[in-house]
Amino acid sequence: MPEGATWLYGFIGEYPWAAAFNTEPESYRSRGGNEASLIERFNPVSSSIAAEWEYDASLSTNMHIPVPSRLLFGPRDLWWDGHDAFRRDDGTVALRAPAISLPGPSALIADHDDLLRRLKRIDKAFVWTLLGEKIIIGGFRSNRSARCTFSQVAMLKADGSIKFSKVTFFND
To answer: How many CB atoms lie within 10 A of CB 7?
Structure first.
């Protein structure tokens, strides 16, 4: 599955409109798998900007700022507020990156209702792939491997609920 791009040397307030973010496709600056064998086209939900204080005097430190995929800007109504959020034209916060202004892990938090309307307007859906591995200390007492991998898929439905697939376990 493709992963989000990491943009260098761009100013957060210029995302995604500036030339620094539009001269190459997001896939060029991303990591991840080859989509050639997938039935549907998948796009990452978010990317990040490597913001460095050496290039942006408004920052006191270097940080990776999570930003929404350019697809979510399709309706052309999101703008960086200069603090920690992307706001709609009416000033309402649509997406927020709280780790910019508060201690904690990096995240991009969306307003639920706005996200559902935005996805409907651009005719897209969110799909998560959940991958995991468990290594059992001491192993099994049988012939089975002490390693168990599993996967699951989830999708955000139009009504705001999340539909989960059955968890699939792999023993080899």
So the answer is: 24
Regarding whether 88 and 116 lie in a shared domain, the answer is yes
Whether residue 62 contacts residue 75, with contact meaning beta carbons closer than 8 Å, is answered with no
Domain co-membership, 105 together with 145: no
Residue 64 burial (CB count, 10 A): 15
86 and 59, same structural domain? yes
SS3 assignment for 58-112: CCCCCEEEEEECHHHHCCCCEEECCCCEEEECCCCEEEECHHHCCCCCCCCEECH
Secondary structure of residue 12 in the 3-state scheme: helix
**What is the C-alpha separation between 80 and 137, in angstroms, rounded?**
47
The answer on 58 and 32 residing in a single domain is yes
Cis peptide bond N-terminal to 103, omega within 30: no
| Span 100-137, pLDDT tens digits | 888 888 899 999 999 999 999 988 889 988 888 887 77
User: Would the CA dihedral through 56, 59, 64, 66 be positive or negative?
Assistant: negative
pLDDT tens column, 142-151? 555 677 788 9
Claim to verify: residue 83 and residue 134 sit in the same structural domain: no
148 burial type by CB count under 10 A (0-12 exposed, 13-18 middle, 19+ buried)? middle
